[in-house]
Design goal:
This protein has 150 residues and is an alpha+beta fold. It is built from five helices and six strands; from the N terminus they run ααααββαββββ. The protein has helices at residues 2-29, 33-38, 42-55, 58-62, 83-96, and strands spanning 65-73, 77-81, 101-110, 113-121, 128-137, 140-148. It is globular and about 35 Å long.
Amino acid sequence: MALIILTRIFMKRTLIFVFCCLTFCSFGQNLNTSQAQALESPAKLAQMQLDAYNARNIEDFLKPYADSVKIYNFPNTLIMDGKSAMRTAYASMFQRTVNLHCELVNRMVMGDTVIDQERVTGIGDEPLKAIAIYKIRAGEIVEVYFIQGE
């Protein structure tokens, strides 16, 4: 009798496990692009745009950004407002700066905020030291704050 009860418990748990696996597998296949992007971690969004920046690929670079993104010089000087302004500024820079490269020196993540310490080469004679602070909401970068070093 005990063997029958244990077998039934095992079968119920196995069925629940299989049901959960099938549910989560099919859930992932039905996500549209914006839903899938919302599941991206803040660090992954920051890395996606960094990789595209280094490849000078404007379309991939802009994908993680919200249409209404705001770019600031820290603490609050607005320098770009919206993805279209970013497209204009960065597309031009990507075209004229063939040796452009951003090295990630350090990354810190806390919640929906990513802080990157960067070393950018290819813009001037000396590497540019910078910090970029990315604020993420609903799976998109909505604000960026830049601090430039000396």
